Amino acid sequence: MSLWLGPGLKFMQRLWGLNRQDGDQDPVLFALKFNGCLAELEWGGWKLVALPLLLKSTIKSDLIEKEPRRLIGFLAALKTAKKLITGETDAVWRARIEKCALDRLRVWKKQDDDSVGFCRFTCHLFSSIFTQESELNDILTLSTFFSSAISSILVDIINRTLAATEEGQPSNASSAWLLGKYMQALAKRNPSEWVTTVDLTAWMKTSIKKWAWSHEVLGALVSLSQARYLSSLPCPSATDVCLIEVHHLTTLSPLRTPTRFYKYPFSHMPVLFD
């Protein structure tokens, strides 16, 4: 313990550039890797020594501006490993990280506005450029730290993706993966942040028309439906019961088209496919 709080603490401070000496190069990238190793090795001084320095150092403007993708990936890995939880962070840190992540999403959205089609652009972006596909995963992993602003962004992207497919853009595996990721992230948010702005029935109709073969999309729709109705506890509609049946079939065999769905005995179900 004395080594952790003595030489160990000084080393960590210097590693993050908090106690830099003449001739030191920028050690931030090494600091990210080193702290990642400490977390993976279950180092006993993580909460006492490493975590406070990490929270202080990761919101420095130079790190956020110069290495946003690396920082987001690093923090997402810590959260996945349960080394970074909401109760151990403060509001200032969460706000800075949220701004960094949302700025990245807005960059992609701006690129979308300059592109020929949202669905075509996102399919290329997240299926062909693997580093950005990974960054999307990381941002959504961290989204539970964020304020309600992330919900409106997710709703907007989902609406634009669904609208693009209605206009003739392809509903392929890449768009299915993307849509499922966004919907699952939205389902983990407080329903009060999105329930009044989401037409879940319309989402279901479009999604089932275009992605009935995708267990990612159908599973995400079920998660949204459960989150919505568990929050208010009304009786589920026939559409939701049907989706749960679809999800059951697709999780049994993700690659199998749920043919039983088309024979589901609800009189209004053909409306979903006209």
How would you portray this structure in words?
The chain has 274 residues and is mostly helical. The protein has two domains: 1-89, no CATH class; 96-274, no CATH class. The chain contains 13 helices and no strands. It has helices at residues 2-15, 28-40, 46-57, 61-66, 68-80, 91-113, 118-128, 130-142, 149-166, 173-187, 200-211, 215-232, 238-252. Helix 5 (68-80) crosses helix 8 and helix 12 crosses helix 13. The model is unreliable at 116-121, 123-130 and 252-274 (pLDDT under 50).
Question: What is the structure about, briefly put?
Answer:
With 274 residues, the chain is mostly helical. It has helices at residues 2-15, 28-40, 46-57, 61-66, 68-80, 91-113, 118-128, 130-142, 149-166, 173-187, 200-211, 215-232, 238-252.
How do the strands and helices of this protein lay out in sequence?
Layout lengths: L1 H14 L12 H13 L5 H12 L3 H6 L1 H13 L10 H23 L4 H11 L1 H13 L6 H18 L6 H15 L12 H12 L3 H18 L5 H15 L22
